[in-house]
Amino acid sequence: NAGVMQNPRHLVRRRGQEARLRCSPMKGHSHVYWYRQLPEEGLKFMVYLQKENIIDESGMPKERFSAEFPKEGPSILRIQQVVRGDSAAYFCASHRDSNQPQHFGDGTRLSIL
Amino acid sequence: DQQVKQNSPSLSVQEGRISILNCDYTNSMFDYFLWYKKYPAEGPTFLISISSIKDKNEDGRFTVFLNKSAKHLSLHIVPSQPGDSAVYFCAASDDSWGKLQFGAGTQVVVTP
Q1: How far is CA A40 from CA A8, A36, A44, A66, B56, in A?
Q2: Which of B42, B99, B103 sits opposite A106 (nearest CB)?
Q3: Could you list the pLDDT tens digit for every one of the 112 residues in chain B?
Q4: Residue in A4, A43, A100 to test binding to B, most B beta-carbons within 10 Å
Q5: Could you tell me if B20 and B8 are in contact, meaning their C-beta atoms sit under 8 angstroms apart?
Q6: For residue A8, what are the contacts with CB-CB under 8 A and spacing of at least 6?
Q7: Which of B34, B74, B60 has the alpha carbon at shortest distance from A43?
Q8: Beta pairing, strands B10-14 & A31-37
Q9: What is the 3-class SS of B32-58, one letter each residue?
Q10: Are B99 and A103 in contact (CB < 8 Å)?
């Protein structure tokens, strides 16, 4: 019974490149959340998606960041033209419905050179 | 705008004793509160939760207390064990178990 799977675990990019982070939710889970954790801080909500729909993107920066959760395949968090300030741990979480706690993946650690 | 605050960045406790972690919040619309535990290089793991209609929830060694009038909750771990050494995050939601707002975490170290 696999948990939430995120890949890659570590990603290094140079300034100006694109970063693509993937998240496969637990089996049967159709609600996906992305959070970002900066050093010495708590996790900050970015976006909430259900299959093929963005439900709440109030935590997403207005530019360069986008997310999707297609009908088939994993959820993708995409960061275009990365900058040093994008260096963080990005966590994905999922749950079956809103009456269950969210289960988290082990995160992707993004480093920008 | 930090709506969930954990004012103690660290806590050291002796094995076998009680660990008490505190959390304050400012948004009166929060209706669910959760505690997560996190080891280095891993994702947060759900520990225990409480809804706003209750003031206490217990699960084994873990008990969460909620004081709505004070906008304060606490997590008690009794007895503390070396494997409890981790960062503990308080989280809250105003949308059932949806979008979570996290505190900054408390690093717990359980010493022999």
Answers
A1: 22, 12, 12, 25, 29
A2: B42
A3: 789 999 999 999 999 999 999 999 999 999 999 999 999 999 999 999 999 999 999 999 999 999 999 999 999 999 999 999 999 999 999 977 789 999 999 999 999 9
A4: A43
A5: no
A6: A21, A22, A108
A7: B34
A8: unpaired
A9: EEEEEEECCCCCCEEEEEEECCCCEEE
A10: no
Which of A48, A101, A103 minimises the CB distance to B49?
A101
Q: Do A33 and B99 touch (CB under 8 A)?
A: yes
CA B98 vs CA A36, A60, B46, B101: distances in Å: 16, 16, 14, 10
Encoded amino acid at B59, one letter: D
B111 within 8 A of B12, measured Cβ to Cβ: yes
Are the beta carbons of B110 and B80 closer than 8 angstroms?
yes
Establish if A25 touches chain B: CB-CB under 8 angstroms.
no
Query: B4: closest CA among B108, B109, B106?
Result: B106
* Coil, helix or strand at residue B10: strand
Question: Does A102 sit within 8 Å of B104, measured CB to CB?
Answer: no
**Is cis: bond before B40, omega within 30 of 0?**
no
